[in-house]
Amino acid sequence: MQEIEGIEFFDRLYDLLTDHKKQLFSKLVKERTRRISWLADNLYHEQNASAIIRSADCFGFSEIYVLEDKYRYKVNEEIAMGAQKWVRPKALHAENGKYESALKIIKSKGYRIIAASPHASGNTLEDLDLSTPLCIALGSERHGLHPEIIQQADGFVMIPMVGFTESLNVSVTAGILMYRLRKRLIEENIPWQLTPEQEKEQLFEWALKTVPNAQKMIKRWFEEKAKNS
């Protein structure tokens, strides 16, 4: 399980939720997946960043990696509609303009990086190999995917275009990819649900966002534990 500070106090924190929230969380955590994660590369417009988070929540994806180089990843709350509480972007930073270390972190989690690009010869949504966990990389509005992502990608996926305009808005691309790939995971009986350990971790994250003053409580519990040890 990924280390999260305070998860040892999960039961104490979770008991503070209302019965309604417990039932809702227990239901929705069964719909979450990390089989496919997402990489947002250096997005400029907060509207697009927020729309991607909202789509990820709607389609049950729990992981979004955010690569920051020139631009910081910002959330527009009116567009995200609260989705930022349920999908936690994981910030990765380009070191001296280089993406290598950030991409290594993603690959170390067991993901193959698949670059979404209308200009690369790649798989369609129908024939993309889902037999192993994937991280789909989405390029910035201004410059597309960074050359290092293209170079280190394990494969490519494209949405065929038949009009005069050669590419979709990045948030629209994300929505189409998320909808179809989740549908394929279910239709093809590919193991996609969270493990029991991942479920507990996800529930703990949601509880942290829901229980008032949760961080202060956990700090106090740590202090009490230190005094009694």
Automatic annotation (TrEMBL):
Kindly list the GO molecular function terms attached to this UniProt entry: tRNA (guanine(18)-2'-O)-methyltransferase activity; tRNA binding
InterPro entries per record? Alpha/beta_knot_MTases, SpoU_MeTrfase, TrmH, tRNA_m1G_MTases_N
Q: What is its EC number?
A: 2.1.1.34
Q: Does this entry carry the keyword tRNA-binding? A: yes
Q: Name one Pfam family in it.
A: SpoU_methylase
Q: Which UniProt keywords apply?
A: Methyltransferase, RNA-binding, S-adenosyl-L-methionine, Transferase, tRNA processing, tRNA-binding
Recorded catalytic reaction(s): these are:
guanosine(18) in tRNA + S-adenosyl-L-methionine = 2'-O-methylguanosine(18) in tRNA + S-adenosyl-L-homocysteine + H(+)
Matching entries from CDD domains are given as:
SpoU-like_TrmH (cd18092)
Sequence positions that bind S-adenosyl-L-methionine: 159, 168
Q: Does the keyword Hydrolase apply?
A: no
Q: Which stretches make up the tRNA/rRNA methyltransferase SpoU type domain?
A: 40-179
Q: Name one GO biological process term.
A: tRNA guanine ribose methylation
Q: What does this protein do?
A: Catalyzes the 2'-O methylation of guanosine at position 18 in tRNA.
UniProt record similarity statement: Belongs to the class IV-like SAM-binding methyltransferase superfamily. RNA methyltransferase TrmH family.
Provide the protein name: tRNA (guanosine(18)-2'-O)-methyltransferase
Provenance organism? Thermaurantimonas aggregans
Traced from the root, the source organism's taxonomic lineage reads: Bacteria, Pseudomonadati, Bacteroidota, Flavobacteriia, Flavobacteriales
